UniProtKB/TrEMBL annotation:
This is Patatin-like phospholipase domain containing 7b. Keywords: Hydrolase, Lipid degradation, Lipid metabolism, Membrane, Transmembrane, Transmembrane helix. It comes from Oryzias latipes. GO terms for cellular component: membrane. It is a single-pass membrane protein. It is found in: Membrane. Belongs to the NTE family. A motif (GXSXG) lies at residues 217-221. InterPro entries: Acyl_Trfase/lysoPLipase (IPR016035), NTE (IPR050301), NTE1_P-loop_dom (IPR056556), PNPLA_dom (IPR002641).
Amino acid sequence: LTAFTLELQHALGAIGPTSLLTSDIIKQRLGSAALDSVHEYRLSSWLGQQEDIHRIVLYQSDSSLTPWTQRCIRQADCIIIVGLGEQEPTLGELERMLESSSVRAQKQLVLLHREDGPPPNGTAEWLNMRSWISRHHHLSCPRRVFSRRSLPKLIELYQRVFEKSPDCHSDFSRLARILTGNSIALVLGGGGARGCSQVGVVRALREGGIPIDMVGGTSIGALMGALYAEEKSISRMRVRAREWAMNMTSHFKRILDLTYPVTSMFSGAAFNYSISSVFSDRQIEDLWLPYFNITTDITASSMRVHTDGSLWRYVRASMSLSGYLPPLCDPKDGHLLMDGGYINNLPADVARSMGAKVVIAIDVGSRNETSLTNYGDSLSGWWLLWKRLNPLAEKVKVLNMAEIQTRLAYVCCVRQLELVKDSEYCEYIRPPIDRYGTLDFGKFDEIADVGYQHGKTLFDVWQRSGVVSSMMKDRHQEDFHKTKAGHVVTCPNASFTDLAEIVSRIEPVKTAAVSGQ
């Protein structure tokens, strides 16, 4: 636990002044009797002063329910339960106490994983045993976190670690930003094959030094977002996305999946297989990054936000265009789920509601093509086929079924999209991909490169204009400095901390030596 706390303190230090307090540190600074109940008021006063002069105070509890552990729980705004992801999810003594108590502080679960170990798995079991947990995080930890060094050697090691700035892309930095309300969310919109450009934009985003703390998406964005959230690797994301896109170009598989069109043209079996083969039986809870996607619940006529459950099923549901694929029956309640683009094609507002300070939203939705052919009151598919096959015939511009569906989705979300674009928290990105069709998956490399070049140019501008530094700035920094400036120090040679410590210090009772008569 000490190594975890020191690692987190290092990451939190990039956000603002951070103080780490343990029972040993309290006794060392305030005296060995500082934790005795008779000195409750003095300790409370000193801890309050620490919270005033530091942006963040990190309380590390003891391993059992000691008075200091109880104090930590009372002081905390957020209680972090730390577990090893590779171990069994059994409840500890302190957790049972938290479950039965009326502690109002937010409780979050952090599962630690070895950086060279297997990916997260079985998270649902941890959460099912802890219904009082509000959020969970998976951290890939450097080897030093699991080292069996003695406490002095561990502190010596981290003194060297603290000499360097923390990596903003590390999982501990992500946790630090989430805990302090400074997280950066990536939201990917729907738009068919145009979504391949999101792979390139994400690559440019990482190269531009911009971290991603949360991922959300709709339709194709749900797929691309899940690919990144699962492995946090842009190279693996590209390989897997390209493989899936190439699979989507198979006309033979589409023909085999045709069915009697009562609900849809295709049975959905082939599309289901293409998605499930990508994600297998992965659960959303097991993804490295916090992830959500959007579907349209046509049973309840509402928007659904999915943050747990079968990953491939909810990705598939979020990509289910009406007329092409049948609605997916939610395995939890049987509700019929359709493409999320019908209700929220760029869910930046959802990411904001989940705590993101900044939302980077990539829009790849359909744009209106106004120069379409006026074909009159009826349209023959045979006539269109002849026009396309005859090299001498005049070319006609008519929307196909997929393009009509994506336009319908886009029309439904125009007002919401404008609100998102105008919001202060959202950085809106629209790659130049209008020339590509909804089903142009065969042009994956070309479309992805367009996204990369656009992102590279844009993020370079962001760096030079201060947008990136503004993203990384603590949202409460100004308020903290105003509060700190309000403290008055009456002794010119002592800091506020020194004075508070002197006043609160509790000297141990001296035993008087009594000589016998």
